[in-house]
């Protein structure tokens, strides 16, 4: 296919503004799917995506469209909108020449509209503003267009107005894509350079690698070389997503598609790598991607110790499909052998955990998440710390530094005061306020990352009755007066329950945490003391009183089936528990810190 008839674009938007619905319409209008097959969000095919109604993984789909007597190939990439998945967005943008910026006709420009639009501007893409949901009974189309001009700085005079739900304006949208987005460049005769932008594991066919051809041509019988791993493979099949996998004979510059090359080994394919031809090799690899920074860490331990290897295999599989996720083995006195896992944010963590449980069937105990810290030791050495259990003796620490994020809020103007109070309570530093029209404002703060990732979004939503949105970006590390808060259960330190908190809030958090743990840990035959401590100083204490009766005692020994039922019930309850010495600690207790703010 000649590059002049190819268009590569992304669809970017704030969450729920209608990207996936618009993608479905593009598939429908181009005939890639029929009205009969049309069901909402065809591309969100992961179970977690269906459960949560959100897009997690980017997809690249090729559709054909006839326009003024020529067949154009439109490759579009549906991207996730949530802040945790900026990394997926930036990767998608690097494979495109243009972007559709979808904005809800009532909600207007929101925090991630701004963040994603800036990312597209930075990637030098042609941006087409699209106002979606014009069918809503109440819209603010003219104001929304003004917001696009004033806040983002894009010319909105030729914005497209659509209703993705009702299929209005879709042809105009496609015409704008063909007319306004530049065709990809690249010489079909040059040595092959194809950028690996994703990969997944298929149980039957091995690794499926997603590529965008930058230079040269890839053919179905080629022998290829992955430049980073220096591995060589015979191509078994190449093809495109239309939207299901469809084999083809060749892929030229600008085209996106997949390669199956019999690779069975997990971890041999790297996102950002370059594929070239064995024998006619490109001289230099493509620049690839910046490695994403994991900002949230937690421990994941199999409940059943014999599942350790299975968990390792599943984590490997997950990491292959998601380059922004990392893990290394670790051991804990309380939890045994497990892994320390790194994520881009909390939603990312929840999704990986849910996918592990749904797709892999491994029962997990997960420890409370924490952010990464930086420590300057007295020796002058600076170390990164992603597990509170590893904090050295306080006498060895010269400076404890925490990650700081620049947070942008977009909210109704009458809620500014309440949100400023929320930020002040969380050690925020005020930056500026800008009014967007008469009743909305943009507020910028610098806040410690640890203060925003757990529940800031929920708090913001409740303060602003759902109308406030936020986006953040980590800007660096700053010294703070931080301490490690230890938890002792029946006199013994449980390092898996340790957290890092600010000294000023340590007593309050300690008290709240032991109180919460008391609710989560059930009664035993003996008394269980729960203590929160900083160093050797105990700052809070609660006691779980001893259980008076045996659960089966009231069965009078006679009714065997009832007794068995009770024991069965107990066993079930135990599933998500870890025995620690004599005390059983349930999964929920490990996450108590999140609710003990
Ligand atoms: P994420 O993938 O989670 O980032 O969301 P998204 O931007 O892909 O939004 P999605 O397409 O899932 O749409 C969000 C909601 O808006 C769904 O309930 C859609 O049915 C609805 N929606 C999308 N387009 C329209 C439209 O044109 N009109 C109306 N009334 N509703 C729409």
UniProtKB/TrEMBL annotation:
Keyword list, A-Z: Cell membrane, Elongation factor, GTP-binding, Hydrolase, Membrane, Nucleotide-binding, Protein biosynthesis
Intracellular or extracellular location(s): Cell membrane
One BP term from GO: positive regulation of translation
Enzyme class: hydrolase
Domain of life: Bacteria
InterPro entries: EF-4, EFG_III/V, EFG_V-like, EFTu-like_2, LepA_C_sf, LepA_CTD, LepA_IV, P-loop_NTPase
GO CC annotation, single: plasma membrane
Pfam families, per database record: EFG_C (PF00679), GTP_EFTU (PF00009), GTP_EFTU_D2 (PF03144), LepA_C (PF06421)
Membrane topology, from the record: Peripheral membrane protein
Family per similarity comment: Belongs to the GTP-binding elongation factor family. LepA subfamily.
Function: Required for accurate and efficient protein synthesis under certain stress conditions. May act as a fidelity factor of the translation reaction, by catalyzing a one-codon backward translocation of tRNAs on improperly translocated ribosomes. Back-translocation proceeds from a post-translocation (POST) complex to a pre-translocation (PRE) complex, thus giving elongation factor G a second chance to translocate the tRNAs correctly. Binds to ribosomes in a GTP-dependent manner.
Listed name of the protein: Elongation factor 4
Gene that specifies this protein: lepA
